[in-house]
Amino acid sequence: MPKLGFILICLIKTTQVFAYRLNTSNGASFGNSKIKFYVTSNSTCNNAGVDQNELLSITKEAVKKYWNTVSTSEIELKSGGIFQTSDSLFLTGELCPEQDGSTCGANNVPYVSKLLIACNSESSVNFPSDDFIAISAPTRLAGSRIRGSVILINDTATSPFANLSRAERVSVMAHEIGHAVGLGHSNKTEALMYFENADKITRLSQDDRDGISYLYPVSVDNCNGIFGGTSESGPGPFLPHFFTGLMLGFFFWRRNKRILKS
Ligand SMILES: [Zn+2]
Q1: CA 41/CA 81 separation, integer angstroms
Q2: Taking Cα atoms as reference points, which of 80, 99, 209, 208 lies closest to residue 149?
């Protein structure tokens, strides 16, 4: 019977179907799983019904409630605070996801090397109707690495963001962050990354978890980069990990030996 159990588990595993999609054709992600987000200082967001500090607060809650909870992913989003700028193109420019700018005009939202959030009122390309609460895209790529992403909150005169509850705003922001860090839309209706009704999703689905874990997996060694991890502060202390591993290995070897004998 144990063998049957094993076979069943294998079958379930191998027939699992993922529905998540990636935002770029090459599955780009931020190289570092510790990602800071910023809100531009000139985002007054009058029509969206928030200010930059509230937007920052909403985003903090979004990462705490959604993406930072995934145990199978190393992603950790943190607030970088307010990004000081007087560039009005963050508020009025078109979002251009082209990495080299070759097909983007002069009136685009500026390229950034960070995850940036702004309120934006450009209505011909970004927000042609009230169906769009917010939009997001990686705007700067280098191969399979995202260098910068922008999230724009609809700040047009009839912004639907203004009519959302705080909890719904948090969910919408979490959905946009998913795009900004590399996830596309899922075709699972219960997923936060489903293409609509993100404001009604109160928790991540397994599909969301699978997607973010694919892009930002937990390091196998978990030794702060000694085998090629992505710790921002560089490799961690190797020797303490090594000797702890050695002692644990010895302990389990002794214990297994005893179990086998009995
Ligand atoms: Zn979306």
Answers
A1: 9
A2: 99
Count of alpha carbons within 13 Å of 124, Cβ hemisphere only?
6
pTM of the entire predicted model: 0.78
Please report the domains of the chain, with CATH numbers, ordered by start residue: 19-215 (3.40.390.10)
The two three-digit tokens of residue 155, written as one number: 């700040």
Is 218 exposed, middle or buried (CB count within 10 Å of its CB: 0-12, 13-18, 19+)? middle
- CB-based contact 44:119 (threshold 8 Å): yes
Measured in Å, residue 45 CA sits from the centre of ligand 1 at: 21
In angstroms, the CA 135 to CA 172 distance is 10
For tokens 């260098």, name the residue.
Answer: 147
Distance (angstroms) between ligand 1 centre and the Cα of 172 equals 9
Distance from the alpha carbon of residue 195 to the mean position of ligand 1, in angstroms: 5
In tens, the pLDDT along 193-241 reads 999 999 999 999 999 999 999 999 998 655 443 333 333 333 333 333 3
Task: Please give the Cα distance from 199 to 189 (Å, whole number).
Answer: 13
